[in-house]
Write a structure and sequence with these properties.
Pancreatic_hormone-like_CS; about 600 residues; disordered C terminus; metal-binding; globular; two-stranded antiparallel sheet
Length: about 600
Amino acid sequence: MQNLEFVNVSGPEPWKNKEAKKFVRSHAMKDFRRRQRERNPKGKVKKNSQSGEGSVPTANKKVKPKAGPELPPEASMENALLPVRPTSMELTQVHPAAQGRGWNSGSSSPSYTIHDQMPFGRRIPSPISLIPKISSPISFNPRMYSGLPSPSPSDSSDLSTSRSLKRMSDTPDYQSQADFDLGVSTAAFAVLDDVHAQFDRMTSKFFHSVHSYLAFIHRPRFEKRVADSKIKADAEMSVLLLSMKLVAEPINYAQSGADPRQNSVYIAAKHFHRLVNKSKGPSLDLIQSGILLCLYEHNAAIGDVAYKTLADCANMGQRIGLNASNFKMDFGVPDMAAYQEEFRRTYWALISMDCIVTLHDEKRERAMLMPIPTLDDILPSVKEDYWTDASLNDEYLSLAYYQPVSSQLPQWAHSFARQAQSARLMCMVQDLLRYRFEDDPAGMRTKILKVDQLLQENMVKSLFDCNGNCTQHCGPISMAISASYLLHEFQLLATMTSSDPEDLEALARSKLAIVKLIQMMVDILGMFPITHLPELSPSALYCPYMAAKLSLQLDRVNGVKAPPTLAPANFQLMLQSLRQFSTLWRCTDYYVKDIVRAQSRALPMPMSVA
């Protein structure tokens, strides 16, 4: 049995090697005792080899009824804090926040069942015994989108993962939820150990990169729960750690040539995310880990899987009543204010990821998964230090820091609150793009003009408050710029062949707006530190692509006699930045190929064309 090296060498309540060894040894001892019981069940006497006659149980060898799964002395000592679960406790409930406050106000949220322990005669499938099934290439066969190929079997798989999963493949089914959590955590830590993950390094990178544009995990509460997980196994936390590892320390696929679908951590995280949800039901942790999985799948260009993962998260969010209202709920957990803020921020993270995933749905074939937030919805707290400083208590997070979407944010407001406002505008744009312009040209022009004004106000406010440091508010600024690109591209294509005076006026507005947006991207890239790649949100990766693509589109509209919209040097700047981005995220590699193809043909090609 291997010794886990996934150790925190500093910080709160570090994981120690000796604790990790105990953790694995406890599970191994349970397996050993189970095998003994199967070979020689209680109440039976082995056949006498000399007489050749079978014996029958005597009075002093009566079988004692078992009240629950038997634990060896070692396991009992090491898992003393794991409560003994009732034989069968089944809770069927609808989250109180989902009653009458769901995303579909006219319907009640579906109920769900949480099995604390499976009824007699049934067993929870062993997660470790099922792992070998996911060590082979993922058998997805999604519809291709954005020119991204569907996953195909690879000739080689991750050998280290196969070895670690094979070592743990023959284990018992779990009769209690505590055993299930223990099994998932053991297997997850083994995968993290195989890739030499270090807790301090991983969390530091996560909270300095992904957290800058998806700030939905409360760091003090997260670190406390991680420390508690070494005493009481937590399957949801283990899945969250796997997902964080994926996005916090991305592999340089350009150098390694590895297939992101065969990433050992991704394979394990994807499998356990489904398994834990099926066994224990939806939870805030599973939604958070699903959001990070979706982010990885989107950035790694893994076909249509990101949309499916996000759909699962949206469904779980609806079932637990996830929302952005100011409705006070008693979650029954410590640090109530922090949990409620995390609840709200996770909802906004779902909104942001919905906007990001739909960037690649250029044919508008899929509906938005999340509703458009209302002006009365509450933004994430504009105060950020509580979110990272464990010394601040719940009273510090007062109602003064909760502001509705319609509010004018102070200059010192945190980036994620601003991004929530930008994401709402992106949702409005995506909703507009799903209508046919020619069905109501006048109405569409009016709506586009109104949304465009809101986007301009949002961008001016964010750019002014960041004092020229665009990386400070990269998420909200790039989200608003991406939304503006999409809005004016839509109006440009709808009016470029029209002779209607009002359409021509709208065409002129869109052409001018696109030119200004392109110049804005040139200015940002001219001063942007490329070394900060992991801090870039997916919408920031999308902006240079749209700038180069729409410059070619404008050249086509203006004609060959007009000067190019984007100077050759600036055009190469866009390509160079995208090539730099593609070293970490494969989706930008497809951006580069589409731009080069469009440039060679002197007209822009949609990303969905292979």
